[in-house]
Amino acid sequence: MVILQTQQLEFYFRKDQPIVRSIDLQVPQGSIFGFLGPNGAGKTTSIRLILGLLQAKSGTVEIFGQELGSNRSALFQKIGSLIESPSLYLHLTGKQNLEIARHYTQKPASRINEVLAMVGLEHAATKKAGAYSLGMKQRLGLAMALLHQPELVILDEPTNGLDPGGIIEMRELIKQLNRDLGITFFVSSHLLAEVERMCTHVGIIHQGNLLFQGSIQELQRAQAQQRMIYIDTNNHEQAQSILSELKPQLVAGKLTVPFESKAQVAALNHSLVTAGIDVYELNIQGADLEEMFLNIIR
């Protein structure tokens, strides 16, 4: 089931300079969807359009199967969000900040302790938010987004500016909430490695265009198709015969076959060695995910 969908979503300040160009997003329910792109690609603008903070020039946004424009109040009861950095009262404690936010949710006071526990801030509940580290502020912002028990949480660059430890904490927290509570996350990021480690699905945006959309496995399969195994042996002619189903080619004195998986490499090596062929080299060459990402956005 698709929980968030956009159709031909477009936005511009000047018509000859579109910022978001007819994007069609499909976010599966229960997924962690990484919205990946370099700075200035249109990620934050797209999120503001999805949340109704900007008015689209054309196109539609559907959440839980309902059109955003005519069902905004009902839909926002199911959506939590954290756009850029959280808006906090720095002179108040973490718990007091949550108490202010709770008044808008009509949830019981006990919910505050629940969300503090979810994000690992119970120990800092009575500490002033101004004394929080950046990572703690981000987690407090996430706690505020979770107060009303949303089914969909939208986060804009939640690890931006965090140190490595803070990035890992936020990543693992999102994965835990998704796994334990079934919350769907839509997370924008410019960090490919983080998206690969955290997300189940990814959409790649560049200059307002959605260039790729699918599961992480689909992205990895697309990447694998661009890689080759280079094999150096003592008998290329016999090796070609053994590997004939893979249609090996002789390139620069080495056999090449398309790379599929690490298990395939192991099986290939086993077949050659079992046949008495000396394997001098097995080398995988081609684009890794980072190179593929750069190729997509060029």
Can you offer a commentary on this structure?
There is one protein chain. The chain contains eleven helices and 15 strands. The strands form three sheets. It has a six-stranded mixed β-sheet with strand order 7-8-9-4-10-11, with helices on both faces. Helices cover 36% and strands 29% of the residues. The protein is α/β, with parallel strands linked by helices and 298 residues long. Strand 13 (249-251) and strand 14 (254-258) form a beta hairpin. The model has no long low-confidence stretch (mean pLDDT 91). It starts with a strand and ends with a helix. It has helices at residues 43-50, 72-76, 94-102, 110-118, 134-146, 164-181, 192-198, 216-224, 236-242, 262-274, 289-297; strands at residues 2-14, 17-23, 26-28, 32-36, 58-63, 66-67, 79-82, 152-156, 184-189, 201-206, 209-215, 227-233, 249-251, 254-258, 279-286. The chain has three domains: 2-78 and 150-222, P-loop containing nucleotide triphosphate hydrolases (Rossmann fold, 3-Layer(aba) Sandwich); 91-146; 226-297, Alpha-Beta Plaits (2-Layer Sandwich).
